[in-house]
Amino acid sequence: MSTGMIIALIVIVAAVVVVAAVLTRRAKGPHGGRDLKRRFGPEYDRTVARHDGDAKAAERELTERVERHGSLRERPLDAGRREQYEARWTAAQERFVDAPREAVAEADRLLAELAAERGFPDGNQYEEQLAALSVHHAHHVHGYRNVHRVARVGAGGQDGVRSDTEEMREAMVEARALFEDLMSSTRRRGANAERAERGEEVAADGDTRSNGHHESRGHMPWAMNRRHAKGS
Asked: Which residue ranges have biased composition labelled Basic and acidic residues (predicted)?
């Protein structure tokens, strides 16, 4: 075998090894600041801030979260359970008007239960559940973190300090964003399955087309505003 052919074989083998390494790296999940920023969004910035600006330390933590929870598959809810959760959330929002602290505590419990039923770690493992949620719902997970903190403060869990009504209102609004995010995927899956059974066409984007029209998505009203909420 000539020297030229030997060199060519070495180059080919080296190229195959490099390609295999890249594919393996990608299969393990996002690595590096750019991929993590794209995946975690505002959660990336919060983690960096919590590490006093140390981006490398923050990225190590976020990468470890992905390795622990990235393979988690969210379980769907049946129609009955979806209706129960939506009714409980609406009741908590309406209760905020007269009893904001109790409403915030209920929102905290409801998110923990909903996340557990969707397949995330149990709510009794709050930090682990929060970490898993941050991997799959990074743009809204702060709503859970904030409502949990405010619920604890409201119960006197942090040196007896109590939150004011505006802080509780903001926590409820942020928590609702995560609630909607957790409900939206299971709502679409359940609705699409029911429509498929009726022979209706389900589009690739998850919308249903019947007689040439898109079906409008449900909306859960937010019954509390700045003027109506009472302090407690």
From this structure: 191-218
